[in-house]
Amino acid sequence: MKVLVTERIAEEGIEILKNEGIEVDEKIGLSHEEICNIIGEYDALIVRSATKVNEKMIECGKNLKVIARAGVGIDNVDVESATKHGIIVVNAPDGNIMAAAELTIGLIFSIFRYIPQAYMSCKQGDFRRNKFKGVELYEKTAGIIGFGKIGALVAERLKACGMRVIAYDPYVSEEKFKKYGVEKVDFDTLLKESDLITIHTPKTKETYNLISEKEFKKMKKGVRIVNCARGGVINENDLYNAIKEGIVAAAALDVLEKEPNFELEKQDYYNPLLELDNVVITPHLGASTQEAQVNVAVSVAKEVAAVLKGGIAKNAVNLPAFEKERLEEIMPYLELAEAMGKIFIQAERTFANKIEIIYSGQIDEKTTTWLTRALLKGYLEFSVQDTVNYVNSQLLAKEQGIEVIESKKEESGKFKNMITARFTTSEKVLELSGTVYNNEGRIIDFFGYKVDFKPEKYMLLIQNIDKPGMIGKIGTIVGEYGINIATMQVSRNKKGEKAVMVCEVDGALPDEAVEKLKSTDGILRVTMAKL
């Protein structure tokens, strides 16, 4: 067994592979073409962020069984192509969570006590301490947006400082909040009551510009803000204005929407926030600790060794290694199950404390195991900060306090096979059902309405009053924004009551269009879903 390592990783990871009897070739700095010329000799490839593992490289890797990214993101790996070739892709999602949490705490102290500014003043020979009158954390209120693993670590440390800690995360169970002694609040309450706001949420369509002018106007005067999560969650122009207006006393950012090149000593980079003395900016240091670099190297080395030894990778981001023929057979079911999870969470945006998955027909037990994981993956991808994959989705669901029930029955009505997902929230029970025919997944029951549509990349989900003219109104508004409706499914249970529309559209509707639809007479709910 041979592993090719194309970028530097900690020696501890290399040693793990060698101790498992695996031959390791470290060839740093190879061009894309050079890697393609030799990758056919190797069973595994380990990269960081510089190596672009595209379809051509994957096709050249005739013997590849696993591709490992020594880090959190996988933007530089063509996961879809790897999956088609039966290659497992792994990463190290937990390697830097402590580093990110500790950096957050460091930045919090920095902006409460003006530590960086005082340091620079002293360096310049100015020791006047009266310029740096700080604020104590003790008995202040900290608001955490995103209560995943990093958010929980930050909460523990802030509570140790004597802070009242509140958090907003609609997708986390009450049990987790109680476990950490953190108050669960709605978004507006967090904005209004917090002396400190720290962000620990991924950047998604839902969280992009999560904090902008409207949100700043709801905050306490003198609030301090920290973002070590993702650039773009805070609108930086609106943050600048909020600081100038005196709403925000200080801010610390480890991430920016548009980031500079972190390898150059000097460059032409401008961000108006750099002009403000009460803003601390660091160059995306969240994972930059010796321990985090060792952690990710050790993590991926163990994953690679496990796969090459015939085991299961805990941090696989794609499908398990089925035989090619088997993969082609079950792929439509896996895509359907994952889409069902994504549709529910985007349509409802609420925590499900119980998810029941009922399989009908001839689906075998090995397949249902992975279908359940796929459905949970789809649900959790939009509701937790943690990296979710097919292997860890069940464990993450358990950590969130979700009861998962799986059952099987032989009868499936007029369909060969059927998947039904029953989601129980604190207020209601909702069901989605789907099947596969002509080798593509179809949703056949949408929250109690009979439909027949293929889950697509962009879908407009609408609930409306069943009355004449609704289709025309929706089509007109969507058309005003230059978006074409490819297909439309309309269903009602009783004339004149509620109906649903599922529209496949050629692109995502802007928020302005969604709001216009919501305000249209007769429309009850609108969701712009993206799969």
Automatic annotation (TrEMBL):
Pathway(s) served: Amino-acid biosynthesis; L-serine biosynthesis; L-serine from 3-phospho-D-glycerate: step 1/3
A Pfam family the protein falls into: 2-Hacid_dh
Cited function: Catalyzes the reversible oxidation of 3-phospho-D-glycerate to 3-phosphonooxypyruvate, the first step of the phosphorylated L-serine biosynthesis pathway. Also catalyzes the reversible oxidation of 2-hydroxyglutarate to 2-oxoglutarate.
GO biological processes: L-serine biosynthetic process
One Gene Ontology term of the molecular function aspect: NAD binding
Protein name: D-3-phosphoglycerate dehydrogenase
Reactions mediated catalytically: (R)-2-hydroxyglutarate + NAD(+) = 2-oxoglutarate + NADH + H(+); (2R)-3-phosphoglycerate + NAD(+) = 3-phosphooxypyruvate + NADH + H(+)
UniProt keyword annotations, A-Z: Amino-acid biosynthesis, NAD, Oxidoreductase, Serine biosynthesis
Lineage: Bacteria, Bacillati, Bacillota, Bacillota incertae sedis, Caldicellulosiruptorales
ACT domain sequence ranges: 459-531
Family: Belongs to the D-isomer specific 2-hydroxyacid dehydrogenase family.
Superkingdom of the source species: Bacteria
Known EC number: 1.1.1.95
